[in-house]
Amino acid sequence: MDVSTAVRSSIRLHARLPIWSCVAVLALVPAALAAPAQAAPNTAKAWGLNESGQLGDGTAEGPEKCEGTSACSTTPVAVSSLKEVASVSAGGKFGLALENGSVWAWGSNLNGQLGDGTTTQRETPVLVSGLGNVTVTAVAAGGAHSLAIVQKEGVTSVMAWGNNADGQLGDGTQNESNVPVVVCAVGEKAPCSQHLSGVKAIAAAGDFSLALLDDETVVAWGRNKEGELGDGTTEASTVPVAVSNLSKVTAIAAGGHSGTGVGHALALLQGGTVMAWGHGKTGGLGNGTEANSDLPVAVCAVGEKAPCAKALEHVKAIAAGGEHSLAIIQSGEAPATAVAWGNNNDGQLGDGTSMGPEKCGELSIGPCAKVPVPVSGLSDVTALAGGNEHTLALLKNGSVWAWGRNISGELGDGTSMGPEACSPFLNACSTKPVEVPGAAGAVGIAGGLEFSLAFGPVPTGHSTSTGVSCSPSTDVAGRSATCTATVTDTSTFGPTTPTATVSMSSSGPGGFTGAGSCTLGGSGSSASCSVAYTPDSMPSSPVRNDTITASYDGDETHKASTGTTLVTVISPTAVAKGSFVIGDLNATVGSVVTFSDVEWWGSNWWQENSLSGGPAPAAFKGFAESSSSPPTCGEQWTTIASNESGPPATVPEYMAVIAASRITQMVTTISGNAPEVVIVKTNPGYAPNPGHHGTGMIVAILCRG
């Protein structure tokens, strides 16, 4: 939708001072005009600061902690309940969304900026009251006030709610309102009999508001300490006044710091040039100076110096942040790029530095740019949004990029500790654009006070990934392993829970319960199910790797995907006449064990093996002649009286071995238990008598009884 939605936020210095600030405009290409909102299957995501519920995810406690204590999210999370978003706007600790001609709001509500008739903080979206008999076509969030373009019977006007200390609601008063009020016409006094009409676009800053009219002129109302109303004065106005010397305007933007008198505004003209007015002490007007202006001035071209001989040209869209400004530039068929100017303390200009390129302020120590500089490394830019001290860009391919301050995760790159440290306060930041992975596929963006918003379509045919794991991953032929498949919706916007079934198969001989099919169950973006796999023995391959494949066929929403894992299958070979024995305290997978000593007669087996039930008799030689072959857990075994028979002459590569916890001797008969049976991979060189150690490594636990 062609809408110019002004975005505003409050500033939080590194010391967390309670100062409100205004941010940016989301300006879409082409020039933004209000139009009836069309239902679209779009959902919204948010990231950054969340101490007032401004992420809309149902909490103000997390999901993470930034700077040790502040609730935040360093990656995008879903804004609850929104399913048909047409536009979003981010303000000072609160957000707005337009859906089907209605407005939803969430976050801080101290001044009634959510418009629900209360001043109660909301951590999930609530419907703005009093708009049921009109159709809303655009929204704008200010520092602590909100605007909406409304349409009724073919007439477009503006309604406002929230903070009104400087007249930013435009109703002729300075009375705060927690429900929408109608903005007065130019020249009216409260109670107004005429109201502003013929409105095409709106922009909200910290303490002032703008509207673009059908006749391509601009009006403004609210605070005017630094000339942000552009009427040639510094007198505030509680009703709209005409911005001087402007015509043929196609888009507007507003930014600044609420409560401090720092505010500025931009207007994009039909010819592709930009005018600016208001606060200019950090270069935000882009005219090569550090002077405020209560009348519009032309923004200079890249590389110019005051007095500029050439104005910025080929501008397609504009945006304004706390004390910085942005524009999309495109000449002919060339890819669209971005430029920025103004304050650069936190790298918000995206030119690769936070030390310049110039210095602004009374002591000339503040990093800034008084004329536009190119944003590093971006092309095919379709939209820009200025946060308080960070910036967002939307590219043609639907990817979102961010740069500037990052102390609350507002860049969405998974960290609040970098990737850089910017002067003068060494705040976490990035001086160049970084991608926001979790916002891919967006069609709109907005920047607020240390938080960001994006919205985009719910993908049709959601992409999925399927993972599978089996436990145990090293198994014995004839014993079951539990194989679990997990299917995850990997779409960026609006992931949902996969349903239907998963089918599993094996590259080796064996069988699955349920013919290898299971029904998914879960919540959120993932679902899982399990089956049992029992591998068959292969005497010709005492050890093999079976590839287990989990195949998800998809459902009405989700695409098919597959995943694989390996199960190592051991087919132990039985030994003649019985089983070898080790101590249970030696029975750990990966341990090297001795199951037979050098000399059969005069064996030192008892010294090589440790039993939890105490030492074995010294006469025991490591072989249980009367044990079952292969052995089973829980059995009791004995040796032949007087231990007269020896062990087998050879051993297989893999064999089952008893792990005994107790061995006793009664006269000449030795007996023991079998709480565990393990699989041992034998080492070469075994010989019974005289000969060499019978040693090997435990590769699996066959059973515990």
Task: Provide a concise account of the structure shown.
Helices cover 1% and strands 46% of the residues.
What does this structure look like?
- With 705 residues, the chain is an all-beta fold.
- It folds into 3 domains: 4-457, Regulator of chromosome condensation 1/beta-lactamase-inhibitor protein II (Methylamine Dehydrogenase, Chain H), CATH 2.130.10; 464-570, Sandwich (Immunoglobulin-like); 579-704, no CATH class.
- It has 1 helix and 54 strands.
- A 7-stranded antiparallel β-sheet has the order 1-2-27-28-29-31-30, with no helix packed on it. It has a 6-stranded mixed β-sheet with strand order 45-54-51-48-44-46, with no helix packed on it. A 5-stranded antiparallel β-sheet has the order 4-5-3-33-32, with no helix packed on it.
- The model is unreliable at 1-38 (pLDDT under 50).
- Helix/strand/pairing class, anyone? mainly beta
| Estimated helix fraction | under 10%
**Spatial shape:** elongated
Q: Radius of gyration in whole Å, from Cα?
A: 36 Å
Domain count: the total is 3
Q: Let me know the number of strands.
A: 54
Question: How many helix segments?
Answer: 1
CATH superfamily of the largest domain: Regulator of chromosome condensation 1/beta-lactamase-inhibitor protein II
The largest β sheet comes out as: 7 strands, antiparallel
Please give the structural blueprint.
Elements: E1 4-6, E2 25-28, E3 42-49, E4 64-66, E5 70-78, E6 85-90, E7 94-99, E8 102-107, E9 122-127, E10 135-141, E11 145-152, E12 155-162, E13 177-182, E14 199-204, E15 208-213, E16 218-222, E17 237-242, E18 249-257, E19 262-269, E20 274-278, E21 293-298, E22 315-320, E23 324-329, E24 337-343, E25 358-360, E26 366-374, E27 381-386, E28 390-395, E29 400-405, E30 420-422, E31 427-435, E32 444-447, E33 451-457, E34 464-471, E35 474-476, E36 481-489, E37 501-506, E38 510-512, E39 517-519, E40 521-523, E41 526-535, E42 543-552, E43 561-570, E44 579-583, E45 592-596, H1 605-608, E46 623-624, E47 636-638, E48 654-660, E49 663-666, E50 669-673, E51 676-682, E52 687-688, E53 691-692, E54 694-704
Parallel strand pairs: 35-43, 44-48
Antiparallel strand pairs: 1-2, 2-27, 3-5, 3-33, 4-5, 6-7, 7-8, 8-9, 10-11, 11-12, 12-13, 14-15, 15-16, 16-17, 18-19, 19-20, 20-21, 22-23, 23-24, 24-26, 25-26, 27-28, 28-29, 29-31, 30-31, 32-33, 34-36, 36-41, 37-39, 37-42, 38-41, 40-41, 42-43, 44-46, 45-54, 47-50, 48-51, 49-50, 51-54, 52-53
